[in-house]
Amino acid sequence: MPSTEILDALNADPSVQRRLRFANCVLRIETGDRRWLLALRDGKVASAAADETADVTIRIAPEAWVAFQQPVPPPGCHDIYAMAETGRADVTGDFLTLFRYSYVLKDILQQLATGRMFG
């Protein structure tokens, strides 16, 4: 579960709120023994209930997650799509949902990995 600081930072960002204003999905992110189940609803990011089914699941190899956390990640670890393309991440579920919320997904991953936002 993400810390309240991470959720507060995401929810305080006007661009996140704008991108998610019509969102209604559940996102699961896994790497090693860390797991986040996030509900994206009505312009907000919140922890989802443990029994909710994810619309999109992203499983990232632990070594790729560590590389992604670097100030300048190496090629192939700098982005979720690069990680998937190079076999360092597996993305399953509803791809329309994935692409619809692609920009905010990148913000969420950045915040979870480093505590920093992109923009």
What's this entry about, in short?
The chain has 119 residues and is an alpha+beta fold.
**Mean of pLDDT:** 87
- What is the count of β-strands? 5
Largest sheet: 5 strands, mixed
SS-based class: alpha+beta
Gap between N and C termini = 24 Å
* Percentage of β-strand residues: 25-35%
User: Helical residue percent?
Assistant: 25-40%
- State the shape: globular
Would you mind describing this structure in some detail?
With 119 residues, this protein is of the alpha+beta class. Helices cover 39% and strands 25% of the residues. It is built from six helices and five strands. A five-stranded mixed beta sheet has the order 3-2-1-4-5. Strand 1 (24-31) and strand 2 (34-41) form a beta hairpin. The chain is globular. The two termini are 24 Å apart.
Topology:
Elements: H1 4-12, H2 14-19, E1 24-31, E2 34-41, E3 44-47, E4 56-60, H3 62-68, H4 80-85, E5 89-93, H5 95-100, H6 102-114
